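Annotated sample (chain length 192).
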Amino acid sequence: MKPSRKALLLDRDGVINVNHGYVHHPEDCDFIPGIFSLCAAAQKRGYRIIIVTNQSGIARRYYSRAQFHAFSRWIEHAFFTRGISIQQTLHCPHHPKESGAFGFQCCCRKPRAGMIFRAQRRFHLNLSQSIMVGDSWSDVRCGQHAKIGKIVHFQDPLLVKAQSTPFTPNLYKVRSRDYYRAKSLRSITRLL
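Output written by the structure step:
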């Protein structure tokens, strides 16, 4: 079967919710403005919505896999109540500098593309027709390794205010690079 489905691949902390540091309880979750409208527009245009997230808090024993999965179900339900279907939440629980069961170098931790390739196999994704949105350089590099069609480096609006000027557009392609920069999730709908 030839891969034909496109996906909107989203990092979690810093894209879906404000990255307060190892968020794993609903009461600590603040959704970033525009995430639901972006996902609704993508779903309407035939994109599968998949979350791909490094979760080293598991390796560091800040929270368990069970707590991570419970919080992921809560997030997926928050999208569901708005008519948006999250196909899957893929996560990497590893960290190479930690000890224990998850303390090793793996192929799934971004910037490696293991989670992306797993999603590609499961959902028969055409990665060249897909979009990846992340807030860190490891997300951008992961998208480049996987040869994602459009990669967006999103900066949390609370952080960008201090760094941008009034002349910085909400979405622009970085010259001589194969990715976009965005300071608004809503602006990413133009790439769909």
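Annotation: The first strand starts at residue 7 and ends at 10.
Annotation: The helical segments are 35-44, 56-59, 65-80, 114-123, 137-145, 157-163.
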